[in-house]
């Protein structure tokens, strides 16, 4: 069965964005882009909350076509345009966008059905509200976190309104990048 993996940048004090959704604290560079690109290049399904999806949709479809596009922009734009996008939203209904499915109800049944399909892991990109919902519904199978060397003190917490206990097992793929970001991979341990 496929797994839903939550992928996001996080501060040392557990925030995934500033109070107004800011991500200007997240350290990204070509080393990190290349590393992430290698993991997701074979991925066939991306999962987003509405806000993150609309932000991605506003940039990635044409990012690789711009004259000043970086290697990362070109590669990620191509990947984004080809990947099947699943969007969790109570306000979006249907779409004419290719490779895009909107889920607005029966989330547990629909995500579990998608997990049964053949394919790679399902990456949940950013999307703190969707992540909170999927944690509460026991649909997250792992966390792929990039811990940034910063303490914000306030913002949107990864753990906001979470009232369930989740046992995690650290996978041996932890890595530190030259910009100070540390990658942590956790698998949800359902054996405890």
Structure write-up:
With 192 residues, this protein is an alpha/beta fold. It has a single domain, classed as Dihydrofolate Reductase, subunit A, CATH 3.40.430. It is built from 6 helices and 11 strands. The protein is globular. The protein starts with a strand and ends with a strand. The mean pLDDT is 92.
Give descriptors for this structure.
two-stranded antiparallel sheet, 192 residues, 5-amino-6-(5-phosphoribosylamino)uracil reductase activity, RibDG_C, alpha/beta, 6 helices, DHFR-like_dom_sf, Riboflavin_Biosynth_HTPR, Dihydrofolate Reductase, subunit A
Outline the fold blueprint.
Elements: E1 4-11, E2 15-17, H1 30-40, E3 45-49, H2 50-57, H3 60-63, H4 71-82, E4 84-88, E5 100-103, H5 107-116, E6 122-125, H6 128-136, E7 142-148, E8 156-157, E9 168-170, E10 175-176, E11 182-188
Parallel strand pairs: 1-6, 1-7, 3-4, 3-6, 4-5
Antiparallel strand pairs: 2-8, 7-11, 9-11, 10-11
Helix pairs in contact: 1-4
Structural class: alpha/beta
What count of domains describes the coordinates?
1
Give the CATH H-level superfamily: Dihydrofolate Reductase, subunit A
Helix content: 25-40%
How would you describe the shape? globular
CATH class: Alpha Beta
Name of the CATH architecture: 3-Layer(aba) Sandwich
Q: From the alpha carbons, calculate the radius of gyration and give it in angstroms.
A: 16 Å
Q: From the 3D structure, determine the CATH topology.
A: Dihydrofolate Reductase, subunit A
Q: Summarize the main sheet.
A: 9 strands, mixed
Summarize model confidence as the mean pLDDT.
92
What is the N-to-C order of secondary-structure elements (H for helix, E for strand)?
EEHEHHHEEHEHEEEEE
The share of residues in extended strands comes to 25-35%
Terminal-residue CA separation: 20 Å
Oligomer: single chain
Helix segment tally: 6
Low-confidence stretches: none
User: Could you tell me the number of beta strands?
Assistant: 11
